[in-house]
Every structure is written in C-alpha cells, then in structure tokens.
Amino acid sequence: MSMTKKVAAEFLGTFWLVLGGCGSAVLAAAYPQLGIGFAGVALAFGLTVLTMAFAIGHISGCHLNPAVSLGLWAGGRFKSSELLPYIISQVAGAIFAAFVLYLIASGKDGYTGGLASNGYGEHSPNGYPYMSALLIEVVMTFMFLIIILGSTDERAPKGLAPIAIGLGLTLIHLISIPVTNTSVNPARSTGPAIFEGGIALQQLWFFWVMPIIGALLAGFTYKWLGKETK
User: Fold this and answer.
1) What DSSP designation does 63 have?
2) Out of 5-14, 148-157, 184-193, which region has the weakest mean confidence (pLDDT)?
3) Is 230 domain-assigned?
4) What is d(CA 3, CA 165) in angstroms, rounded to the nearest whole number?
5) Fewer CB within 10 A of the end CB, N or C, for the chain?
6) Phi then psi dihedrals of residue 90, to 5 deg
7) How many CA atoms lie within 13 A of 127 on its CB side?
8) Is 75 inside a domain boundary?
9) What's the mean pLDDT in 158-177?
C-alpha cells in the first residue's frame, strides 16, 4: 500500500475517533434525561477504534494515535521511516475533527467552549492531581499497547484484534475519564486543546509525554514478553 493511502487512512480514522469520542462527550453525555454519561462516552471511543480497525486496518494498520505508532515501533512492528508521516496525519485528522465538532457545538445557544479536552489538577474532571494523572496516563497507555501488540501477534486468534482493542479502549475510558478525561492518545488531546485554548493548551505537553512513555515501555516489554525461546 502506498504511503499516501496509508496516511490518508490514518487521517480519516483519527478524524472519526475524535469526532465520535469527543463528540459523544460534548453533544450527548449530559443530554437531559437521555444523556449517555461516562459509560456511553467510553463505549463511543471504543466503537470508533473497533469500526475503523475493520475499515482501514488492512490499509494503514489503524494506529490513529502517535503513542500507538511509537509503541509498535518500540515493539519492532513499525518502520522508523513511517513514524513522522503517520503522526502528522493523525494530528491533522484530530484537529480537523475538533474543528468540525466546534462548528456543530457552537451552533447551540449557551455553548461554553468545551470540547472534552484532557487535564489534571483544576482541569481534571474530578480534581485529580498531577501524580494521579501521570500514573493513569502512563499505565493505561501501557496496557492499551499490550492489548494491541498481543491481539495483533501472528500467534493470536485471527480476525479478533479489532474487538479486543476496541473493548480495551472502552475499559480504559471507564477507568480514567474521571481522572484526566482519558487521553492515552496525543492526537486526541491536541485537537480539542487547540480550539479550547487556555489551560487545555497549557497542559497539552503532558498528554504527549505520558502516553508516549507508557507506549514505549509497553513496546519494549512485549518485545521481550512475546519472544519465543527454545
């Protein structure tokens, strides 16, 4: 598959992840009486990855996340030469999705400017401090990459990886939405932060550094864990 098609797929997939996941949080989570709540938002994020894995997994691998690309690289599953094009397309897709979501959400009277950005301290959904946010983002991204690397291993059951990965991301959100609004994905954090500005943009560095640390640790760990020995 050509690099042009791969990065186009990553752009489209990351657009869907941010629009579907953050869109559910902004437009549907607190809808009076019929709101989907945290559980619905968690499921929405999982469903975006599950559906895109089936739709574009055979084209680009369906990373949709700079941390995933770097984790797969650390695990020996991804070429160094493709890292930068993938990351650029993922971030671009996330920013475009946030722009579309902003246009939709801002059309309603009373819109306050939120786009489900990530944060810690005063910007955490439930007031969790820096260290709590650090631990949850590193650990959750670590586990997400272990799920991805394990379920896509050539020895794993065939055709079921999208389900495991989608449900894994759902579980991660069920655990961590109250702490940071769940990033585990620098691109997902970047799109909303750019349009929200303020503290969301000030804390954006954190949601690049911590997921990447967790992903790299998982990549190196699975490279050792999954290696067959005689």
Assistant:
1) -
2) 148-157
3) no
4) 24
5) C
6) -65, -45
7) 0
8) yes
9) 96
